[in-house]
Design brief:
heterotrimer; A alpha/beta (514); B alpha/beta (420); C alpha+beta (145); B: 420 residues; alpha/beta; 5-stranded parallel β-sheet; 9 helices; 26 strands; 29% strand; globular; C: 145 residues; alpha+beta; two-stranded antiparallel ribbon; 5 helices; 8 strands; 21% strand
C-alpha cells in the first residue's frame, strides 16, 4: 500500500534537502511495460505503481544507486544516472561536504557508510608497472608449460636439516597449501548472510583456497568446509568456542580492520535473528558490539598470550593469523606480531571494505596497503624474521595485476572481499549498513537474502578465482617465472610511474626507465 | 488377453486408457447401445442451449479407437453376461468372448410413478438422443416444467430458458442441488436463477401430469398448486443400470458392488462408473458416485487391474463444478456433513454472491463449497484426497486466495519437488 | 520427462517468469509489443505465490495421472503419454471449470478473455521453458526427476 502512494507528490512532506538527491531515474516510456519488477526489487521503495494511470513512478530521493532495478528490468527501460543538479563550483566546499552537513544538521548523528574508502587518494597499484622477459630470459607459455601457483601458508624454519641423505629432520609447524594466492577475506555471518557464506565456502573448497568467517561465528551447516576455513577471533569473541576454534585450518585474531582502524564494530540488535543469535552465541535482538580493542590485548606480550592460548586450545594444529589495519607504524607492529608467534600477518589497507563504518574514519584513517606491505616486508627481511610468518594483504585488490604486484612487493597471498561481493552482484553503493542490500548480500532480511543463490554465488566466485589465476599465470609467464614462489618479494620486476623519490624508496622499487 | 467393455461412456474410456498403460496390444472390444462414439455427456446441456455444435460434443478424436486397437460395436446391446463361459451375448446374436470384462453401463433416469407420466412430451435428459428429442420442442413449447432441481434438472432448465422457453423447476428438498449444495449456496443460485427469469419451486413435488387429449396441459403439485405447461422433463436422478447382471451371480446393492480393484464379486469381471458401487474415500463405505471424474477414474483403475497391474483404487469423492449464468460454483466432498465431529467454517458475502465453506473432520478437510470465486479450488480437492492435516492452517482455508503458500512448508515442498 | 520444479528458497518474487510466459505466448514474442500493442495481453500460465518473505512460481506439473484430464468433460484436457505433456486443446474447452476443481496445484486458470481455461504447455517451441530461462536466480529448475 505504502509503495503505491510513493512517487507521486511525496516530496511535499520531505525535508527540503531531500531534493539534493544523488541519482535520477530515467525510465524510457516506450520500453516500460509496467511489469513492476523494479518495484519488487527495490528495497528502498523508490519505485511505485500508479494503478489508475497504469504508470510507474519513482521517488528518486530514496535511490541509493544500487542499479538493481536497472539490472532486472526486462526491457532495459531504466537508466540510473547521477543527478545533474549542481551546486556552484567550489574546490573546497564540494557537494559531498555540503550534503553531509545538511544530513548531520538534520540528524545530529555520525555519518555512516559501507564498503571501502572511495576518496581520490593515490592508488599505487596503478603507478606500478610489471616487467616482461625479452630475449635474454625467455618468457613461458602457461598453456604449454607447468606454472605453479600453489603456495604454503605458515611459518618456515630458518634452515632445514637433512639426515641420511634425503630425510628431512626439521619439523615444520602446520602449513596450509593454497592453490591460488587468493583468499576470501573476513566477512561475518550477520554482516552478510548465510547464502553468501555458503557460496564463499563452496568456492574456496572447489578452488583449493580459504575463506574467512569473520567475527560472526560459524554456522553449523558450514563446518563441513573446515579444510577451507579460517575462523576469526575478534574483540567481541562472538561465536568462539572449542569446536569453532578447531573447525577450520587457521584462527585469525582480528586486531584491526582497514576500513575502520581503531574502532570496533556494531551489528544492530534487529539483525540478530534466531540463526545469527545461535551462531554468535548472543541473545536474539541484542546489539553485537565488538569493542575497539581486545580487552585482553594491551601489548605485544598480551597478544603473544592470546596466540599461544589459541595454539594450546587447538593442539598446535592450526595456524594463527593476526590481522591489523595498515597504519603508520605497521612495520614495527608487524615485527612484534611475528615475534609474538603469529604464523600469518594479515595487513588490511585503508581501502578495505566494511559493512558499516563512520564515514570520517573510513575515509581518513589508515594508509595505503601498497606502502604498508612494502615497509612490513622490508622490515621483516631486515630483521631476518620474514620466514617466520606468511604475509597476506587486503584492502582494495581489484584485479589479478594488483595481486601480482602485491606478491612482487612481498606478499604471500592476498585477501579479497569487495571483489568477491562484486562478483556476486554488488555494485558498491555503500549502503551495507542499512541491512537492505538489494542484491541480497549485506542483509539478513529473508526476503532479500534469497537473492543470493548459493549455487550461483559458488560458481561466480570460483570463476573469479579461476580467471585471475589464468591471468596471474600469464603475467608470471611473461616475466619468465614459472612459480609464484619465485615472484614473492621480487621487486626488480616492478617499476614505478609518476612516483616521487620517497614513494619509490618506501615501495623499494625503481622508477620506470631506470 | 481379451478385454470386453460394456458401455461407451467416460468410464469405458478411462478403462481403455488404463488398460493401454499396462497392455499395449491385447484386443479390446467395446459394446455400446448408443450409436455414437464417446461424447462429453455433460455437454448435452450446452448442445441444447445452442452454444455448441453436435460435432463439438465428442470427447475423443475420430481415430481414437483405431489408434488404441479398440473394436467398437456401436448400436449393439449386451443382452446377457455368461460369467462361466466368459462370454457376453449381444443383441445381434453374437457371443463375445472375454478374459476380462468391464461393466460400464452407467445410470438410467429414475422415473417416478406419476399419473400422466406415460405419453408424449415427457422427457429425460441424460443422452444425446434426449437432446434430439427435446430439440423438437424448441420454438413450439412455451412453458415446461422440470421435475427435479438437481444438476441435470437445473442444466436442462438453463438450456431451455436460453432457448426462450419459460421454465419452472420443482424440487422436493428445501434447496436446489441438495446433494452438492448447502442451504446458503442453494439460495444464492436459486435467487440468481430466479432473477434470470426461471421459476424455482422448493419443498414441493409433482403429483400429477395433467393431460388433455393426450397432450400435457399442466403439472399439479403436492400443495395443490398447478403450473400450466406443454412438456415435462423428469430429472430426479439416475439409478445404476444393473439389469444386465441380474441372475449372473454378480453381487449388487444399489449398484454393482466392487472391491478395491474395481472387481466385482465374480473374478475377472469389473465395474466402473455410474453403475458401480465403489469405495468412497470420505465415508469409508461403498457407494454409487455418479459423477464424471469419478467414472473416468474408476474406469482407469478398473483398466489397470484388468491388465494385471494390481493397483488399488483410492476411493471416490464427489465433486461438481457448475456455473449458473456467470456464477461459478464448486462443491467437493461432504458439503452437508451429517453427524458430529465435523468442524464447519464459512465466509459469506451476500452482496457479492461470494460464499466459501469448508468442512473439517479430525484435522482433515472433508468437504468444501465455493460460490462466486472458484479459482484454485482443486487445491482443496487435493487436500481432501491426499489426507493432509489441515489443523495448522485451517483459518486460511476460508481465504478466497488460499494457495499452496498457505500450506506447511514441508507439505508444499514435497508436493512441488516430487515427480507428480 | 523433464518438468519445471520451483525452489522457493531462492525465488526472489520478481515475477519475471510470468513476464517471460506472457511474451512466449504472445503473437509477436516481443516483450514490448506483447505488453503494449497486443490486446488482449496474453495471460501468464504460471503463478507466483507470495506471502511475506516466501515466494515461488508454480505451473502445471504435467502429472502422470492428471486429475484435470480425468475431470475434463469435453476432452479438451489430454495427457500425451509420449511426451508426458498435459495438453489443453482450447477449441474443445467449454469453460466448465472441472479442471480447476480437480487440479491439486491450483495451476489452471480461467482465461480472462474467452470462456476457457489456460495452463502451462511447457513451451513446445523452446528447448527450455521460457519461465525457467528467464529466472534470474535459478529458482525454476527444468529437469528429469
Amino acid at each position: 500500500m505504502e509503495k503505491e502512494q510513493r512517487g507521486a507528490g511525496a516530496l511535499l512532506y520531505y525535508d527540503q534537502n531531500q531534493n539534493y538527491h544523488d541519482f535520477v531515474i530515467e525510465r524510457n516510456p516506450d520500453k516500460c511495460i509496467q511489469c513492476q519488477v523494479c518495484l519488487r526489487q527495490c528495497s528502498y521503495s523508490v519505485h511505485g505503481y500508479d494503478e489508475r494511470h497504469d504508470e510507474m513512478r519513482a521517488d528518486e530521493t530514496r535511490c541509493v544507486g544500487c542499479h538493481r532495478c536497472e539490472a532486472l528490468c526486462p526491457t532495459g527501460a531504466i537508466t540510473i544516472k547521477k543527478n545533474p543538479s549542481d551546486f556552484r563550483d567550489n574546490a573546497l566546499w564540494t557537494p559531498w561536504h555540503i550534503k553531509n552537513i545538511y544530513k548531520q544538521a538534520a540528524t545530529g548523528g555520525v555519518l555512516l557508510t559501507g564498503m571501502g574508502n572511495p576518496s581520490p587518494y593515490p592508488v599505487y597499484w596503478d603507478r606500478i608497472l610489471l616487467d616482461a622477459s625479452q630475449v635474454t630470459n625467455p618468457s613461458i607459455d602457461p598453456l604449454r608449460e607447468p606454472m605453479e601457483l600453489r603456495n604454503y601458508l605458515g611459518a618456515k624454519p630458518d634452515a632445514i636439516e637433512i639426515i641420511n641423505g634425503d630425510e628431512l629432520k626439521t619439523t615444520f609447524t602446520p602449513q596450509i597449501p593454497i592453490e591460488y594466492p587468493l583468499l576470501f577475506s573476513a566477512m561475518s555471518y550477520g554482516s552478510i548472510n548465510l547464502n553468501i557464506h555458503c557460496g564463499l565456502a563452496r568456492a574456496a573448497e572447489e578452488m583449493g583456497i580459504l575463506y574467512n568467517t569473520g567475527e560472526g561465528g560459524l554456522h553449523p551447516s558450514l563446518y563441513r568446509y573446515g579444510r577451507n576455513t579460517i575462523v576469526q577471533c575478534a574483540s567481541g569473541r562472538f561465536g568462539v568456542h572449542r569446536d569453532y576454534l578447531n573447525a577450520g585450518v587457521a584462527i585469525e585474531i582480528k586486531v584491526g580492520q582497514g576500513a575502520k582502524p581503531g574502532i570496533g564494530g556494531h551489528l544492530p540488535g534487529e539483525k540478530i535473528g534466531p540463526e545469527i543469535s545461535l551462531t554468535r552465541m548472543i541473545p536474539e535482538g541484542t546489539d553485537a558490539l565488538s569493542p575497539a580493542p581486545h580487552h585482553d590485548i594491551y601489548s605485544i606480550e598480551e597478544l603473544r598470550q592470546l596466540i599461544y592460548a589459541l595454539k594450546e586450545a587447538t593442539d598446535y594444529q592450526k595456524l594463527v593469523f593476526v590481522k591489523i589495519a595498515a597504519v603508520h607504524n605497521s612495520a614495527a607492529i608487524a615485527s612484534g606480531m611475528v615475534r609474538a608467534g603469529a604464523d600469518v600477518i594479515a595487513l588490511d589497507g585503508f581501502r578495505g571494505g566494511t559493512g558499516a563504518a563512520p564515514t570520517m574514519i573510513r575515509d581518513n584513517v589508515g594508509i595505503p596497503i601498497e606502502l604498508a606491505l612494502a615497509s612490513v616486508d622490508e622490515r621483516l627481511r631486515q630483521e631476518g624474521i620474514r620466514n617466520q610468518a606468511s604475509l597476506i594483504v587486503a584492502g582494495g585488490i581489484r584485479c589479478s595485476a594488483d595481486v601480482v604486484k602485491a606478491i612482487a612487493l612481498g606478499a604471500d597471498a592476498v585477501y579479497i572481499a569487495t571483489a568477491a561481493l562484486i562478483a556476486v552482484g554488488c555494485t558498491v553503493c555503500q549502503r551495507c549498513y542499512t541491512g537492505k542490500c538489494p542484491w541480497g548480500i549485506a542483509t539478513n532480511d529473508p526476503y532479500l537474502a534469497k537473492r543470493i543463490n548459493p549455487e550461483i554465488a559458488h560458481e561466480k566466485l570460483a570463476n573469479l578465482i579461476r580467471a585471475w589465476g589464468h591471468e596471474i599465470q600469464e603475467m608470471l609467464g611473461g616475466m619468465g617465472i614459472n612459480a609464484l614462489e619465485s615472484l614473492r618479494g621480487n621487486r626488480e620486476k616492478l617499476r614505478g610511474i609518476g612516483l616521487n623519490e620517497v614513494e619509490l624508496q618506501i615501495l623499494g622499487i625503481k622508477h620506470a626507465g631506470a | 488377453m481379451e478385454y470386453v467393455i460394456i458401455g461407451n461412456g467416460v468410464a469405458a474410456i478411462g478403462a481403455v486408457e488404463g488398460i493401454r498403460q499396462w497392455d499395449a496390444a491385447s484386443p479390446i472390444t467395446i459394446v455400446s447401445a448408443e450409436p455414437y462414439k464417446v461424447y462429453g455427456r455433460p455437454l448435452i446441456s450446452h448442445l441444447l442451449a445452442g452454444k455448441i455444435h453436435e460435432s463439438d460434443i465428442f470427447y475423443r478424436s475420430d481415430d481414437y479407437y483405431d489408434l488404441r486397437g479398440v473394436k467398437l460395436l456401436l448400436g449393439m446391446r449386451a443382452v446377457q453376461i455368461l460369467p462361466d463361459k466368459r462370454k457376453v451375448a449381444s443383441s445381434d446374436g453374437r457371443m463375445l468372448p472375454f478374459d476380462r470384462l468391464l461393466i460400464a453401463t452407467g445410470g438410467i433416469p429414475f422415473m417416478p410413478p406419476l399419473p400422466g407420466r406415460d405419453g408424449p412430451d415427457v422427457y429425460t435428459f441424460t443422452t444425446l438422443d434426449d437432446v434430439r428429442k427435446i430439440e423438437v420442442l424448441i420454438g413450439k413449447a412455451k412453458k415446461i416444467v422440470v421435475i427435479g432441481g438437481g444438476l441435470i434438472g437445473l442444466k436442462v432448465s438453463e438450456s431451455l430458458h436460453d432457448r426462450g422457453i419459460r421454465v419452472t423447476v420443482v424440487e422436493l428438498a428445501d434447496r436446489i442441488l441438495s446433494t452438492a449444495f448447502d442451504p446458503i449456496a442453494g439460495e444464492i443460485i436459486r435467487k440468481h436463477l430466479t432473477e434470470m427469469g426461471m421459476e424455482i419451486i422448493l419443498q414441493n413435488s409433482a403429483t400429477e401430469i395433467v393431460r388433455e387429449n393426450g397432450h400435457i396441459r399442466a403439472v399439479i403439485m403436492s400443495d395443490g398448486t398447478r403450473r400450466d405447461c406443454e412438456a415435462v422433463v423428469i430429472a430426479i436422478g439416475v439409478v445404476p443400470n444393473i439389469s444386465l447382471v441380474e441372475g449372473t451371480g454378480i453381487k449388487t446393492n444399489r449398484g454393482i458392488l466392487t472391491d478395491d480393484f474395481m472387481e466385482t464379486s465374480v473374478s475377472g469381471i469389473y465395474a466402473a462408473g455410474d453403475v458401480a458401487e465403489a469405495h468412497d474415500l470420505l465415508l469409508g463405505q461403498r457407494r454409487v458416485t455418479p459423477i464424471w471424474p469419478v467414472a473416468y477414474l474408476q474406469g482407469q483403475y478398473a483398466g489397470f487391474n484388468m491388465a494385471g497391474a494390481k493397483i488399488a483404487y483410492r476411493g471416490s469423492i464427489p465433486m461438481n463444478s457448475i456455473e449458473f449464468y456467470g456464477i461459478p460454483t464448486v462443491s467437493i466432498g461432504l458439503s452437508n456433513p451429517v453427524g458430529e465431529n465435523y468442524e464447519v467454517r464459512h465466509m459469506y458475502l451476500p452482496e457479492r454472491n461470494l460464499y466459501r465453506k469448508i468442512v473439517l473432520k479430525d484435522h482433515l478437510l472433508a468437504g468444501a463449497v465455493l460460490v462466486g470465486r472458484i479459482q484454485r479450488a482443486g487445491i482443496l480437492t487435493g487436500l481432501i484426497l491426499n489426507r493432509i492435516d489441515c489443523e495448522s492452517f485451517k483459518e486460511e482455508l476460508l481465504k478466497d486466495d488460499f494457495g499452496l503458500i498457505n500450506l506447511p512448508v514441508e507439505v508444499r515442498k514435497k508436493m512441488l519437488a516430487v515427480n507428480p | 520427462m523433464k518438468r519445471v520444479y520451483p525452489r522457493e528458497e531462492v525465488c526472489i518474487g520478481c515475477h519475471l517468469c510470468e513476464i517471460a510466459c506472457i511474451v512466449e505466448h504472445s503473437a509477436s514474442k516481443d516483450i514490448i509489443k506483447a505488453f503494449k500493442a497486443e490486446t488482449p495481453r496474453p495471460t501468464a500460465r504460471n503463478l507466483v505465490e507470495e506471502e511475506g518473505a516466501i515466494s515461488f512460481s508454480v505451473s502445471c506439473r504435467h502429472c502422470n495421472e492428471p486429475p484435470c484430464v480425468q475431470a475434463c468433460i469435453s476432452g479438451a484436457m489430454v495427457k500425451d503419454y509420449q511426451s508426458g505433456v498435459v495438453r489443453h486443446l482450447e477449441e474443445k474447452c467449454m469453460g466448465c471449470w472441472s479442471c480447476i476443481m480437480a487440479c491439486p496445484y491450483g495451476v489452471i486458470r480461467k482465461n480472462p478473455v474467452r470462456k476457457t481455461v489456460i495452463k502451462c504447455d511447457l513451451c513446445p517451441e523452446r528447448p527450455i521453458p521460457a519461465c525457467v530461462e528467464a529466472c534470474p536466480n535459478r529458482a525454476l529448475i527444468f529437469e528429469e526427476r
